[in-house]
Amino acid sequence: MSLRSWQPPQGYYWKVVVDPTRTGEEPGMFYGGHFRWTDIVLPGWDGEGIPCPWPSGTVFEHIKTGERVIIRRGRVVRLEGEDLQTRLMVEVHNFSKWVDGL
């Protein structure tokens, strides 16, 4: 019997790599989950003003290409280039300040 590594179902290529719902050692509601692009960007979201349902600060990574997108104030923003790490750190810092203010 050979061991097969787990693979997400066809089309579920976007993995949550930063989950702002994480607290302490708890993994959060979405961390590690795999989603389709249509789960992240709702059809008609840009034309009809429908906000993205994901919490700000959520970062998705495409498991095949490594492309990353972040949810910022109800919008999906692609992260590219050298400033990727810097932008992620700033987003996490801003989210932490926001949570502290609650």
Write up what this structure looks like:
- There is one protein chain.
- By secondary structure, the chain is α+β, with helices and mostly antiparallel strands.
- It has one domain (14-100).
- The protein contains 3 helices and 5 strands; from the N terminus they run E-E-H-H-E-E-E-H.
- The chain has helices at 37-40, 45-48, 84-100, and strands at residues 14-18, 34-35, 59-62, 68-72, 75-79.
- A hairpin with a 2-residue loop joins strand 4 (68-72) and strand 5.
Keywords summarizing the entry:
alpha+beta, globular, single chain, 102 residues, 3 helices, 5-stranded antiparallel beta sheet
Alpha-carbon distance between the two ends: 53 Å
Percent in strands: 15-25%
Mean pLDDT: 78
> Which series of helices and strands comes N to C?
EEHHEEEH
The number of distinct structural domains comes to 1
Radius of gyration: 15 Å
| Helix share, percent | 10-25%
Spatial sequence of strands, sheet with the most strands: 2-1-3-4-5
Main sheet makeup: 5 strands, antiparallel
Count, helices: 3
Topology (elements, then pairings):
Layout: E1 14-18, E2 34-35, H1 37-40, H2 45-48, E3 59-62, E4 68-72, E5 75-79, H3 84-100
Antiparallel strand pairs: 1-2, 1-3, 3-4, 4-5
Summed up:
The protein has about 100 residues and is of the alpha+beta class.
